[in-house]
Design goal:
Radius of gyration: 31 Å
Helix content: 40-55%
Order of helices and strands: EEHHEE
Strand order of the largest sheet: 1-2
Largest sheet: 2 strands, antiparallel
Number of strands: 4
Number of helices: 2
Distance between the termini: 80 Å
Shape: rod-shaped
Length: 140
């Protein structure tokens, strides 16, 4: 047909659609954007776990200090904080997903109260590895 707009320079009918190069460019852009999104997502998950860890450590340390101020000695283990109502439950370490991996630091014998038994003076994470700030989780 003469004057047909579907004709390409009069040689033949041109197929409508995308070329292989165009499809490859679009697919590679999607892969790059998905990779960036996945990296951002995993970093935000790690940040949130570290934030929860810091908050849990702070709450348990405050409870230990309140217990010590009220009773005159530290608790023998973390479950005493729950039993005496200082915290509702021992939280899970967000990095290990277990409440049993907390590392406790026992108190020294108090010179002003030598009869008091040593107890839990501090608590640290039992998780391996380093945080985004470069410090070991076990040192937080």
């Amino acid at each position: 047909m003469i004057g047909d707009p579907r004709r390409d320079s009069g040689i033949g009918i041109r197929d409508s659609g995308f070329t292989l190069i165009e499809v490859l460019i679009v697919v590679s852009l999607i892969v790059v954007l998905a990779g960036i999104g996945l990296a951002t997502y995993s970093m935000s998950i790690r940040r949130s776990k570290e934030s929860v860890l810091l908050e849990d450590l702070d709450k348990m340390r405050r409870a230990l200090d309140q217990y010590s101020a009220d009773k005159g000695h530290y608790p023998s283990d973390l479950s005493e904080l729950v039993a005496d109502g200082y915290i509702r439950q021992v939280p899970k370490d967000p990095l290990t997903d277990s409440a049993g991996t907390w590392r406790v630091v026992m108190s020294d014998i108090d010179a002003s109260n030598p009869g008091a038994p040593p107890g839990v003076a501090d608590v640290k994470s039992g998780a391996e590895g380093t945080g985004l700030d470069g410090k070991n989780y076990s040192d937080w």
